[in-house]
UniProtKB/TrEMBL annotation:
InterPro entries: His_Pase_superF_clade-1 (IPR013078), His_PPase_superfam (IPR029033). SUPFAM superfamilies: Phosphoglycerate mutase-like (SSF53254). This is Phosphohistidine phosphatase.
């Protein structure tokens, strides 16, 4: 399991909601959310707000589907929540994802809005394979939000929010 210290003490990992298939000639990067994807992103954002899950910083991939998913969160978080859009999350490696989280030493909580399979690999790296399979036997779903807390013994999956 990965050790990230000092803060953040809470990490939110949000996989973008369901996206449309690429139209002929459309880049994967430019695929928007489906209507169901927009609805799922809003539902997960509302559930996160109901549970008072409010990151200090939201870092999102610049891909359209991630920006649209992050916009659903923007509606429910504090106006002081900072948003950053980072190109490196699109097609980024596990090392890039973990590095982005670890570099946020002035934030108590950070959210990544990003892509599978790397978002799932990031969760697995934090909590371990057995905990991942136990919590998500069918994998990390679209619009899924993992809430991961730091403890004295490492990272634990505190909650998983879906639509």
């Amino acid at each position: 399991m990965t050790n990230i210290s000092p803060p953040p003490s809470r990490i939110y990992l949000l996989r973008h909601a369901a996206a449309q298939q690429a139209a002929p000639g459309q880049r994967d990067f430019d695929r928007p959310l489906t209507d169901d994807g927009f609805a799922a992103a809003e539902i997960v954002a509302d559930k996160a707000a109901d549970k008072h899950y409010e990151p200090d910083l939201i870092i999102s991939s610049t891909a359209l589907r991630c920006r649209q998913t992050a916009d659903a969160m923007r509606r429910v978080v504090s106006p002081s929540t900072e948003f950053r859009f980072v190109d490196a999350l699109y097609n980024g490696t596990l090392e890039i994802y973990l590095s982005l989280i670890a570099s946020q030493t002035d934030q108590e909580s950070v959210m990544l809005v990003a892509h599978n399979p790397t978002i799932e690999q990031t969760l697995e790296s934090l909590i371990g394979h057995e905990a991942l399979v136990g919590a998500l036997p069918r994998g990390f779903p679209t619009a899924g939000l993992a809430v991961v807390d730091s403890t004295s013994t490492g990272w634990v999956l505190a909650d998983f929010v879906t639509e």
